Amino acid sequence: MTCSASDSPLLFDLPVAPDFSEERRLLARGRFHIAGIDEAGRGPLAGPVVAAAVVLDAGDLPDGLDDSKRLKAAKREALYEVILAKAVTISVASLSARSIDTSDIRKAALEAMRRALVGLTLKPCHALIDGRDVPPGLSCPGSALIKGDQRSISIAAASIVAKVTRDRMMIRAGIAHPPYGLEIHAGYGTARHRAAIESDGPVPGIHRYTFSPIKGRFSA
């Protein structure tokens, strides 16, 4: 019996961690100042969506960068400080829960990414964006990379900056609105969070009224 060849990648072909190869290909084509862009906060019931754009120094790349979801909080915090110290330029932008409700989360995330890129102190030659979509209206050419935060360390850096920034925002929101535990779950739909919404109702400006189980049951 003959066996057909598989088109699935072999285990040893899968990247162990993101690297700088995507950026090097662009640098070889004369595209200097490559920005990595990623966002945090698409899925929660509360809080903003936050995007970060990061241009790393090709001659002084931070060690240990990875998709923020694969890192523990303490490691993210430590890498956040390293990225801030070593990056050429960093920009962060966010869209509030109200802005998400007036549009939709996909459009809001893409707009936050666009704003983050615009906020950089220099204009990059190219942007690498995590996901399937290139945000409309970018100030430079861009490429979307599926699982980009696990392939490109520039995107991984942006992932960490966006995640840490948003988590800190949600800690402050949790202090202001204690019943919901926002500082613990960052606005995701945990049992405690859903129970607090049922008992106390959602908070205008904090909760996303177009997300279930809030949608159609409460008015802002």
From TrEMBL:
Presence of the UniProt keyword Secreted in the record: no
Domain RNase H type-2 residue range list: 32-220
GO molecular function (one): manganese ion binding
Cofactor note text: Manganese or magnesium. Binds 1 divalent metal ion per monomer in the absence of substrate. May bind a second metal ion after substrate binding.
Gene Ontology cellular-component terms listed: cytoplasm; ribonuclease H2 complex
Subcellular location: Cytoplasm
EC number: 3.1.26.4
GO biological process, one term: DNA replication, removal of RNA primer
Any coiled-coil regions, as ranges: none
Chain sites annotated for binding a divalent metal cation: 38-39, 130
Family matches, as PROSITE patterns: RNASE_H_2 (PS51975)
Pfam families cross-referenced by the UniProt entry: RNase_HII
Catalytic activity: Endonucleolytic cleavage to 5'-phosphomonoester
Main function: Endonuclease that specifically degrades the RNA of RNA-DNA hybrids.
Family of the protein in this entry: Belongs to the RNase HII family.
HAMAP family: RNase_HII_B
UniProt protein name: Ribonuclease HII
Protein encoded by which gene: rnhB
